[in-house]
């Protein structure tokens, strides 16, 4: 069997499994399921011709030889086998006819196939239906089972063996292998630097000094200028062109007279340690001061005067205090004008998670929702205290005991919450988070949502907001599929639809077709910014890596060698039986134990032999 190899070295996850698996409990099973589903490469089996029906009920339009998105809809109240059809702008066109959907849905739900669609160039259709070719991809070992199921379902599968195959639209999606190469993160982001160079240096921008008290580094000011530009740019999204009085998506061949909406936001992927948090606080500060980006001069300064605010107007919001009710603010006596004596006191109170300074303002507040893991929650609080003038930003911590009123949250400049908090409210329709259309949503450490099927990923993707930001120094951890979850959150059509992403990017990448890499590079060059410390941005000396070899003790060496030999035998048997994909967790467990032996024998279970399966039954990961 030919094992799956992602262009960004997917198998590196085997070496990182212990770290990768330390996630929220609700993601563990889903992450493993995702890993197993990607364990081997899929190939084009053939295509079936069916109809898209119900066109009269939906507003989406499609053209000849246009790719369409196919989305499984198992919770459809009228048909549990429903497969809806979307155009490039993710507007629904209709549904796959029921007779065909009943056959394909079962195979999709069992992860035996993935499907992509393209409307033939010669299609005329009518008001009620239009033909579509559905291309079916599967693992080689499942080919015969899939063929049999499709045949019994009454569908005619056209494959490579059929003469009509080469005359069809299927040839469009059959990517030719030109070699398999590993793709590094830096290679995928290669055009980001080149794109910035072509447009000239990033324009540095000074933050509002009456909110941000710290001096930014040059690269942070440039990053701030880029963030402002992304939020206010009217440029066409990538892969869209203006043609013949309309607009064309050159990847999917979708035509429209309506100008596509610009993407307000993107991926802020600076390497860890370059001060992304302060740069983002500076972005939020412009909302507070009401600076119109058009008022920013070429020198990066803002030329509008702001009214000073008497520190006596500062009130304090008590959070997590037993005397408060559901985290609601407790206001000081309006006659009290006592100021906090030192900023150290302010920092101390914020660090303890008890107080966050803020102002009562009657004007509309552009509220930013910041979502982050609990581990970096305190980082945001600390950064707010260190870099902002006390009282200038009104912050609410939506965590633990909290308000259930949306109107309460709208009073704040920043609402801080965690992925797990949103996941816990994912099925709660009355959640105040869901009742607000946020001005901006920032996902910090956004690689947390790399599994698009996880509950917390679904929760953040469904948030309504005008601006969407993904912030992470490691946008790709396991493989290029990680980027799909980010596209899903950003709602950048058509890449936010799984079938489009697979057809346009993922499969070409996996098969070594340079089109996939080029598309991904162009996409990243437009919507992302990534700088690394080796560029000398903050004056650090070059990073040096030293590998130190440590000799194992005699006992450790004996145990390691014995287990390594056993492991090789087990894996060899899996490969011989063509069952590596079904026994991934066993392989990962073996690697984990070998690593633990190298660290300390005390980390290993007393009976290491128990991790070796006597049969092909999969071994649980959490032994």
Strand content: 15-25%
Assembly context of the chains: single chain
Q: What is the β-strand count?
A: 20
CATH topology of the domain at 268-535: Rossmann fold
* Uncertain parts: 1-39, 163-167, 169-183, 297-363, 614-623
GO molecular function, one term: ATP-dependent activity, acting on DNA
Pfam families: HIRAN, SNF2-rel_dom
Main location: nucleus
Keywords: ATP-binding, Helicase, Hydrolase, Metal-binding, Nucleotide-binding, Nucleus, Zinc
How would you portray this structure in words?
GO terms for molecular function: ATP binding; ATP-dependent activity, acting on DNA; helicase activity; hydrolase activity, acting on acid anhydrides, in phosphorus-containing anhydrides; nucleic acid binding; zinc ion binding. Among the domains are: about 40-175, Alpha-Beta Plaits, CATH 3.30.70; about 270-535, Rossmann fold (3-Layer(aba) Sandwich). The longest helix has 23 residues, at about 555-575. The chain has 19 helices and 20 strands. The chain has helices spanning about 10-20, 25-35, 100-110, 145-150, 170-175, 185-190, 190-200, 220-230, 275-290, 345-350, 375-385, 405-410, 420-425, 455-460, 480-490, 500-510, 515-525, 555-575, 585-600; strands spanning about 45-55, 65-70, 85, 90-95, 115-120, 130-140, 240-245, 245-250, 255, 265-270, 315-320, 355-360, 370, 395, 415-420, 435-440, 440-445, 465, 470, 530. Strands 14-15-13-17-19-10-20 form a seven-stranded parallel sheet, with helices on both faces. It has a six-stranded antiparallel β-barrel with strand order 1-4-3-2-5-6. Strands 7-8-9 form a three-stranded antiparallel sheet, with no helix packed on it. Residues about 1-40, about 165, about 170-185, about 295-365 and about 615-623 have low confidence and may be disordered. By secondary structure, the protein is of the alpha/beta class.
